[in-house]
């Protein structure tokens, strides 16, 4: 367990200011202090690879990682993460599998402009505004996945926030990720600022019902964060997420691509889970090569292999882009054969899932915790996955979810999704609902 205030043990050879101040103010410099970040990253990666190949992986302790990279105490988690990723990559290289994360982490160490640590102190930081159920679950997931070096928690309810930090600190022994109570100004200097502050739905309420309260909360949150680090990415999670993303783009002073909402990523994951559970994909055309007769192979497919998007509002007007559902890129007849009636039922199950959970337990948190942490990881490590996130769409004149590429600069590009006429009408109607809400303010 470690807190931001707790004294830290400094090994011989490292200055007492390690972890305080900027990357350039260390009196004790490594022999390769004149090396460029790229060269240092390559040296580090090569050294880590050599250790793994020698089979002495178990001896790579925190201290070893620190020596290898000559990095600051708070960056050690990133070195260890590189180590683990390289190890996984080398372990699976004989099977021909690749690991895109290792490339992203390598880039993280070697590209100064995409490097985590643009925040004060030269290490990666994620601030979470709102230390309620959702905010703390995101913090916990970020810590367990070692997405960043430090998580900063902020809440208007100071006692609650300090207690949440204390509780989360008890989990840091698993991860070595620092968690601290922060002021709004400190949060404003973070690499990513996740906004979960605000009222949540009561049973039967829609997300749009929250707009009056949460518009005000958003205004006060963004005011408190100023001056916001111009490199920060703001991720909206509080609802109604699309409308709040629109207002955050207007109020934050950041470029629009740096302000995005979690949108319908969670809904799309719910949809993929449902399809994976329900579909047994028969491929009668595959022949048993030994006996020369056709067989039915029933595949139970991982939801990760199903490409299916919920698009539009993260709310009641969302729709499923049925015409573009594929299994690993292939259109399969089983999907085409789902009747209109069943498609409507599946769509309702997806859009109504949050309310069903809220009726029983009062809130949802694990799904959004996982998806928000996943988006943060994609941003910090410049992974560039295609996710349906809420961002500005010129065509619809609002923030709405359609597939977009997410990386260190936020929304990197938007991917056009082929839609049939029915889907086009549905997303236009969804955008109209959002524009009407925005027009009220
Ligand atoms: N986008 C999604 O998929 C998704 C999923 C689940 C929940 N949510 C939304 O997330 C939000 C939070 O939900 P929750 O369950 O954590 O609610 P919660 O009530 O448990 O937590 C909200 C926290 O925000 C804090 N807060 C309020 N005003 C603040 C301010 N001005 N500054 C700082 N903190 C402030 C409160 O003190 C509280 O601790 C809700 O709007 C909810 O609808 C979104």
From TrEMBL:
Domain Lactate/malate dehydrogenase N-terminal residue range list: 126-261
Keyword Transport applies: no
InterPro entries xrefs: L-lactate/malate_DH (IPR001557), L-lactate_DH_AS (IPR018177), Lactate/malate_DH_C (IPR022383), Lactate/malate_DH_N (IPR001236), Lactate_DH/Glyco_Ohase_4_C (IPR015955), NAD(P)-bd_dom_sf (IPR036291)
Domain Lactate/malate dehydrogenase C-terminal: residue ranges: 298-440
Domain of life: Eukaryota
Entry-linked PROSITE patterns: L_LDH
Biased composition (Basic and acidic residues): 23-46
Keywords per UniProt: NAD, Oxidoreductase
Pathway involvement of the protein, from the record: Fermentation; pyruvate fermentation to lactate; (S)-lactate from pyruvate: step 1/1
Record's catalysed reaction(s): (S)-lactate + NAD(+) = pyruvate + NADH + H(+)
Keyword NAD: yes
GO molecular function, one term: L-lactate dehydrogenase (NAD+) activity
Pfam entry (one): Ldh_1_N
Sequence similarity: Belongs to the LDH/MDH superfamily. LDH family.
Protein's name according to its UniProt entry: L-lactate dehydrogenase
Organismal lineage: Eukaryota, Fungi, Dikarya, Ascomycota, Pezizomycotina
């Amino acid at each position: 367990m470690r807190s931001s205030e707790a004294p830290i043990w400094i090994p011989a050879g490292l200055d007492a200011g390690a972890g305080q101040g900027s990357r350039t103010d260390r009196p004790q410099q490594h022999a390769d202090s004149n090396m460029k970040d790229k060269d240092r990253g390559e040296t580090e990666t090569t050294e880590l690879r050599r250790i793994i190949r020698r089979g002495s992986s178990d001896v790579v302790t925190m201290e070893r990682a620190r020596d290898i990279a000559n990095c600051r105490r708070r960056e050690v988690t990133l070195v260890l993460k590189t180590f683990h990723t390289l190890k996984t990559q080398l372990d699976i290289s004989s099977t021909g599998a690749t690991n895109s994360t290792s490339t992203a982490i390598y880039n993280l160490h070697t590209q100064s402009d995409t490097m985590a640590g643009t925040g004060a102190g030269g290490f990666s930081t994620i601030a979470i505004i709102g230390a309620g159920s959702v905010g703390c679950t995101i913090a916990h997931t970020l810590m367990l996945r070692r997405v960043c070096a430090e998580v900063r928690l902020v809440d208007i309810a100071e006692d609650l926030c300090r207690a949440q930090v204390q509780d989360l600190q008890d989990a840091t022994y698993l991860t070595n990720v620092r968690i601290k109570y922060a002021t709004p100004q400190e949060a404003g200097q973070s690499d990513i600022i996740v906004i979960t502050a605000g009222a949540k739905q009561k049973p039967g309420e829609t997300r749009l019902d929250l707009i009056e309260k949460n518009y005000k909360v958003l205004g006060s949150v963004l005011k408190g964060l100023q001056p916001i680090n111009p490199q920060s990415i703001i991720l909206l999670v509080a609802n109604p997420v699309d409308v709040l993303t629109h207002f955050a783009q207007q109020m934050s002073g950041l470029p629009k691509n740096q302000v995005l909402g979690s949108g319908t990523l969670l809904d799309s994951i719910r949809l993929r889970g449902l399809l994976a559970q329900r579909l047994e994909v028969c491929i009668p055309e595959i022949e048993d090569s030994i006996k020369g007769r056709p067989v039915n192979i029933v595949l139970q497919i991982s939801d990760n292999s199903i490409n299916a998007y919920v698009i539009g509002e993260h709310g009641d007007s969302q729709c499923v882009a049925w015409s573009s559902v594929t299994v690993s890129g292939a259109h399969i007849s089983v999907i085409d054969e789902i009747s209109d009636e069943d498609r409507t039922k599946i769509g309702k199950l997806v859009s109504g899932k949050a309310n069903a959970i809220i009726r029983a337990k009062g809130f949802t948190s694990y799904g959004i915790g996982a998806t928000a942490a996943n988006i943060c990881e994609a941003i910090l490590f410049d992974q560039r996955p295609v996710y349906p996130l809420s961002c500005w769409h010129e065509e619809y004149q609002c923030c709405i979810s359609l597939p977009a590429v997410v990386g260190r600069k936020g929304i990197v590009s938007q991917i056009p999704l082929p839609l049939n006429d029915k889907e086009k009408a549905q997303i236009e109607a969804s955008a109209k609902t959002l524009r009407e809400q925005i027009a009220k303010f």
